[in-house]
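Q: what sequence does this backbone want?
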């Protein structure tokens, strides 16, 4: 009887972390399942036929390549985010920027030139900066500029467009203008309730061991949370790569304005890492230089995986508002810069 009674006992309660992680895992599984189903449906709608095994293989290749390309920078971003959250006191970050918010935005945009990372790294870093006391307008300006104007991206652009230094200058100018404009726009119109940040407990009072524990937990949280969303964005980008026929590209390249809008949309759905997008833009020889500039300015600031990462870090409402406004500002800024310099 004693043994029967013990078997009937309820299992021990799960720790709070496990209980909170279970809904997140279920949500990620549902999102992945929906992405797979949506990929097949979109492919059938665009091509009028069920994908062949070759198309499925190509889809898998593109999806894996996007994830593998972005994963090292996602790791870099989560490590920087954890280090900022656990090791850097809030007053240090607050003093690093000018006290006037209007001046803090361009300084934060220029600071993006020293971080060699892509959008996968900038999102968790920006979230950590806001949690540590940096103005949201400055942190968001940094989020947009870091993947677009860092030395690695500018060097890759110069290599992709040999003999065209004006393309590098145009990309730098348009990207900085977009990031500063969005920072000032948030400073003017942004609302606190639009921005949701995950709360973490912990601090610096626990000594060296406490800081290392906080660093480990922060990296684990950001990597697992953002990694699943990165996969969803990669699956959507792979679907577009495989489903859209080449004839569609030729149709849009004939019109200057249509080509600008088309390459802006293409940059959003392809979700190419900013270190590689210049080589893709250089290969689109049928499009005008301004349209290719728009492709390179929009991509690091607004793409499917970045929207997913922003939604997971700051909330879905923020991601929709901020990404939509950024897309408009980036297209206008790159178009004007291309008209002026190219």
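A:
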């Amino acid at each position: 009887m004693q043994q029967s009674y013990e078997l009937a006992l309820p299992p021990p309660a799960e720790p709070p972390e496990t209980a909170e992680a279970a809904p997140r895992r279920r949500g990620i599984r549902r999102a992945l399942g929906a992405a797979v189903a949506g990929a097949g449906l979109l492919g059938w709608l665009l091509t009028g036929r069920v994908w062949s095994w070759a198309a499925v293989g190509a889809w898998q290749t593109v999806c894996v390549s996007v994830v593998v390309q972005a994963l090292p920078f996602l790791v870099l971003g989560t490590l920087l985010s954890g280090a900022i959250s656990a090791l850097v006191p809030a007053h240090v970050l607050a003093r690093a920027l000018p006290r006037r918010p209007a001046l803090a935005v361009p300084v934060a945009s220029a600071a993006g030139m020293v971080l060699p990372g892509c959008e996968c790294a900038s999102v968790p870093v920006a979230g950590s900066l806001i949690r540590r006391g940096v103005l949201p307008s400055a942190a968001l300006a940094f989020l947009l500029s870091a993947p677009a104007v860092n030395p690695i991206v500018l060097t890759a652009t110069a290599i992709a467009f040999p003999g065209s230094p004006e393309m590098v200058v145009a990309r730098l100018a348009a990207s900085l203008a977009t990031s500063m404009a969005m920072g000032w726009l948030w400073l003017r119109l942004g609302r606190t309730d639009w921005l949701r940040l995950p709360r973490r407990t912990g601090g610096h009072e626990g000594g060296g061991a406490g800081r290392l524990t906080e660093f480990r937990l922060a990296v684990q949280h950001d990597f697992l949370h953002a990694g699943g969303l990165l996969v969803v964005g990669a699956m959507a980008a792979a679907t577009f790569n495989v489903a859209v026929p080449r004839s569609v590209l030729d149709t849009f390249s004939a019109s200057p304005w249509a080509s600008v809008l088309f390459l802006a949309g293409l940059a959003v759905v392809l979700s190419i890492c900013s270190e590689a997008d210049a080589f893709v833009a250089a290969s689109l020889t049928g499009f005008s230089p301004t349209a290719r500039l728009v492709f390179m300015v929009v991509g690091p600031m607004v793409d499917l995986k970045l929207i997913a990462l922003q939604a997971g870090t700051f909330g879905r409402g923020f991601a929709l508002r901020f990404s939509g406004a950024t897309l408009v500002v980036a297209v206008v800024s790159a178009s004007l810069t291309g008209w002026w310099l190219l």
